[in-house]
Amino acid sequence: MRRGPIGDGLFQPRVVHQSLLTTEVPIDRIPLLRALASNAERDHALRPHVRLRVLSDHETVFSEGQTAEYFHFVAKGRVKLVAVAEHGRETILELCGPGSAICIPGPTSGASYCCSAIGMEPGSEVVAVPREDVLAAVERGGEFTKSLFDAVAGRCMRMCQRVSEMAAGQVEQRLARLILDMAGPPELAVPNANAGHDGSSTLRIPVRLTRQDLADLCGTSLETAIRVMSRWTKERLIEREGRAIVILDPEALARVCRQPVRRARPTE
Fold first, then answer.
1. Contact 228, 221 (CB under 8 A)
2. Phi and psi based region of residue 110 (left: phi greater than 0; alpha: psi -120 to 50; beta: remaining)
3. pLDDT tens digits along 26-56
């Protein structure tokens, strides 16, 4: 008998309406699941096994070291992937937004999750699909198999790019790219309620991050992150609203990303 995604209590669905656990799971929001349910027969077979979870703020989806029995996907909001050091400090490895697969290597290989996944916004939605259903679809080949390989390759390429950026030591570029990436594609970005004084558009990042979070994601020190963010605030590139970030000048940040490579300084 198939065990539902509530095995150790970490994935107890927090939804009220039973229909949300089956027919109303937002498969169309997730590219990989759209490919998996590419025809009516597959869609009908898939939906009974797919589960939707609505997260509270900072709720754990799965924990590092837990057996990877499910593929997880973000349908709404954001989820952060974190690793915990021996002394207990969390380091953010990646932020996953709508449509993203969460920690694919674990369930793909049958190993344990290499990190923990934690919701960043109340109301974030995560979809879980049993590992055996996904692997059975891989064996059948077709569009889904290619899409899964593309997703795994994409994650590897992002990790390689991050390592390369850290090795180059360009903390300003890393931080600017991170902020722009968090805002999302222009067509999906969240406009800020208050446009720039010169009529230019501004973007609000609907994610609450501390300066330490930003430093971890950029692979730099807290002091360096504070220094760069303070300078950009004075230059009116960004401003803070509590823990949220408002991008006042997206094009200026994009220019920072395009700056020539320079050698790293030891403090970065």
1. no
2. left
3. 777 787 877 776 666 566 666 777 889 999 9
Sign of CA dihedral 122, 94, 138, 99: positive
Residue 169: phi, psi to the nearest 5? 75, 15
Identity at 198, one-letter amino acid code: D
Distance CA(183)–CA(95), nearest Å, equals 12
Burial 47-81 (b: 16+ CB within 10 A, else e): eebbbbbbbeeebebbbbebebbbbbbbbbbbbbb
Residue ranges and CATH numbers for the domains of the chain are 18-163 (2.60.120.10), 169-257 (1.10.10.10)
Q: What is the pTM of this model?
A: 0.70
Q: How far apart are CA 190 and CA 205, in angstroms?
A: 7
Cα–Cα distance measured from residue 76 to residue 165, given in angstroms and rounded to the nearest whole number: 28
The Cα 109–Cα 71 span in angstroms is 11
Amino acid making up residue 36: L
Query: What separation in angstroms does the CA of 42 have from each of 25, 34, 133?
Result: 15, 10, 11
> Which helix (DSSP H) or strand (DSSP E) does residue 178 occupy?
helix 171-183
Among 138, 80, 72, which residue's Cα sits nearest to residue 101?
A: 72
Closest CA to 30 of 118, 125, 116, 168: 125
Give which of 213, 189, 173 is closest to 80, Cα–Cα.
213
Which of 189, 53, 50, 66 lies closest to 133, judged by CA? 50
Q: What is the pLDDT of residue 4?
A: 39
Closest CA to 245 of 190, 197, 201: 190
